[in-house]
Design goal:
Elements (H helix, E strand, L loop, with lengths): L2 H17 L5 H5 E8 L3 E3 H15 L5 E10 L2 E11 L13 E13 L2 E9 L1 H8 L6
Parallel strand pairs: 1-6
Antiparallel strand pairs: 1-2, 3-4, 4-5, 5-6
Length: about 140
């Protein structure tokens, strides 16, 4: 796949999965043995689907991922993004608060045969948890 095609694939994956809530995109864009290091290790399409469903459940109406910066070289794509949403559902045992939150993240995507095989990502989970009120900010 051309470098530009790899970037387009990552954009499509993020947009369709989170903004359009179409988790079937994982079947088309992820390898069967994909691994996400987030820093938890999430294995396979089914594992990713459970991870993504948790966020779509917690932010059911307005979760949006905006890609702030993205670049690709060969079979590697790096993206910096901003997520926004209102917590109206439970998030890993945290009751809904109705708080609007915004958090940042960055991920490196490694592709193989035109699909995402590995993702190394970090995000400001602490800031997001502080904004929903699960962790004191001071």
């Amino acid at each position: 796949m051309a470098t530009r095609d790899n970037e387009i694939l990552v954009r499509r994956f993020l947009d369709e999965a989170y903004n359009k809530r179409n988790l079937a995109v994982g079947d088309e864009t992820l390898t069967a043995d994909c691994v996400f290091y987030t820093p938890a290790v999430i294995q396979g399409i089914a594992g990713w689907r459970m991870f993504a469903t948790a966020f779509l459940t917690a932010f059911p109406d307005d979760l949006q991922i905006t890609i702030d910066d993205i670049f690709a070289t060969g079979d590697k794509v790096a993206a910096r993004w901003t997520a926004r949403g209102t917590q109206k559902g439970p998030l890993r045992g945290i009751a809904p608060t109705g708080n609007e939150v915004r958090w940042l993240g960055i991920a490196h995507y490694y592709l193989s045969d035109g699909k995402i095989k590995e993702v190394w990502g970090l995000n400001d989970a602490l800031g997001m948890l502080q904004q929903i009120g699960a962790i004191p900010s001071k």
